[in-house]
Specification:
By secondary structure, the chain is mainly β. The chain has seven helices and 61 strands.
Length: 819
Amino acid sequence: VMASARLITAFGSVNRTLHCAKFRPDSKEIAYGCGPNVFVYEPDEYRVKTVAHGHTPEGHVTVVEFADKTLCVTGSSMGDVCLWNASEGMALLQNIKPHTKSVTAIGVKKTCKEYVITTASADSLVRVYTLPLTLDGEVTEVQTLDFSPQMMEAVAIAGGSEEVDGEVLIALAGVDTRVHVYGKKEKGGTFERLRRLKSHKNWIQALSFHEASPTSFFLASGSQDATIHTWKFSLQKDSSTVGGASSSTVHGGAKVELTEEEVLAAALDSMTFAFSSVSGRFQWHSHLVEIQQDAALIGHEARVTGLAWVPEGDDVLLLSTSMDRAMFLWQQQEGGAWDPQLRIGEMGGSTGNIAGFIGCSVTSEEKGRHLLAYSHNGAFHLWRKEAGSSSTLYQPLTVTGGHFKEVTSLAWHQSGEYFASVSKDQTARIFGCWKAQSAWVEIARPQVHGYDLQDCAFVPNCGNRLVSAAEEKTMRVFDAPKTYYERCHGVMGMEVPSLEGDLPITANVPPLGLSNKAVLGGQWEEEQNREKGSLDEGRDSVVPVGDFSTPFSDPPVEEDLVQRTLWPEMQKLYAHGNDVFSIAVSPSGEWLASAAKATSSAQAAVRFWMEDKDGYRHAAVAPAVHDLTVTSLSFSSDSRFCLATGRDRSFSIYSPSSLGRGKAEVKVVVTKAKAHKRIIWAGDFLSLPAEEEGTEGEEKKGSGVMRIVTVSRDSTVKIWDVQVQSGETSEVASLNVGDAVTAVGSLKCAPGVFAIGKEKGGVTLCKYTKARGIETLTELPQHGRAVKKVRFSPSSSASLAVVATCSDDHSVLLSSVSL
């Protein structure tokens, strides 16, 4: 059987580290770290087109840097560094392990002779490497610099042209509040500290060089003291100083201190303080370098986290981001002072939900300038100005989104048009297809919780109703508000139903609360009037509910997702004594099954809930079968049976039936002890082929046969046939896949077809037939860590399927499978 799979897109936020996202030079593509993976996002296509693996799975990517449009270098929290060929779809060139602790910064420069790579780490070491321009050789370590007990958090490299004989200057900065400038005093020598610049009063976390010419550089430094300082390096050939420079000229440190009065004066005077005095000179190779502190830029109210130079004609702009939730675009005026040409940020509303910016990047003006910032909660913020426009107006753009911690579960809506995912980042998110662009994007964030979310399920035949379970003893039921239907259904090209009655407009979260409070029509008007007035008077919510930032024809941007896409909570379901671990809703919507973390048979009991006019009502507790936590629950297509798998290496099948008046009876159809040698992570029902049952479905009506698949930590996949009447269970096939299997999902419309997810991140499409047993059809796009859920879209066909997978690597992958 021939089958193939391709990546449609991936969802995942950028990691919470500085220097972790960059535009690829001469391109709009954004490379960023998501968990242990490197994602490449194409803004014009609104999709992640590449998911690259190469770093140690236990860590996460901390730094992403480009030398040019070909070479990309990334570092991770495990101390390893990967080199990638960005021109060949992020093909992994090499993986080296230069450090024993997290990589904090990387500088990479293409010179006329070779690539120069500098890595800094929390182990206090800075290592310098070279790589041939052809990329076909091994990296060569040139030198190691030890800054113990301090560590460097920012690296920038300048030079490398023929005018300076291919030599480079390396600027390093970190916790000691100084900028250290390293270079070679003579050809063939080693890197030495040529200058130590002291002007900041706190840690320096951002450095960036701008080369105005081969002999004129600008260096910008950003610090936790909320200021930005710029330095000008002027180079000149001076044969009289090459061999005989005095120690006072070559050595020593430039030190410029700002008094409190000067800082205040600068803040009141165009937000900058311009310097004109020469801060020092030193000998570098065959050049005399003169350093002048150019200016101090004061405007941010919190630590500066990112810097990027922006060439614009004969001028140059400086982009900066800060934890004060603002991004400045600075322009130098006549006389040397810098003024902010543009300020983007301070989004308003919930300051707790809109985190500060921790990095930035920029594209060239030729392709239409794009400004990129990313925040502490992993969200991207992207703005664009059209090429050639003289306006300073930047439009916000829809950009990729996703979770910033482990994704624990996902569930498709019965329409197959969208799905929800939940994560340890305490959010539930909905992703759907933007019809106008044929692109999958995040369209809503129905729940922002105070506990890590564990599982979720849509309720079929009930509009848009979502049930979620977190690390608490309750489950919560949400209904979509009016704004979701009006906006998100329009974005996805779905019919907007008649919205009459008391349907809430949107939802708010009360202060110190965990429940999304419905906002009705009258409250909506009151909230909008309140937003127009004082934000400090009488607010009863932590998020505003006013107009969206973008047209209803476009998906919401991050500010709207955080503030205006919550779903009102309609019901809490109490019954379990421990944290809820797994839930499942029957295809008919009639039944909800739930299980909690357990260390005894009483705690491990599966509870069944019946649907009524107000939501769900607790109906029955299944007979005690399992001794430890039930790891997964799934219903058969006809809603008659529920499969449970457990940590105790057993699985069971229940049959719930209504007794009327909100009560139910649950029978145990079968229980299989020691079905695997290790914990059973998941199971699902398989469709039977027509020749075995006469009609499509999971049960053979004549003989009452069910076929299920279970997967385990013992690396095996097993197929079981279960006799409904007698409970007789027989193992009909088994396959050892060589890695612990953590997830499974079946394609209901294709008999015997299912996909498995593995502990190391692999996803494999399989098929069972009586004649051939279990066959592997193809490999799907893989994750970087353990796969938690595999779910096929209900709109899939037997020849073309869409499957969503989620993982501990912070990502959700959406793939297309041709059968």
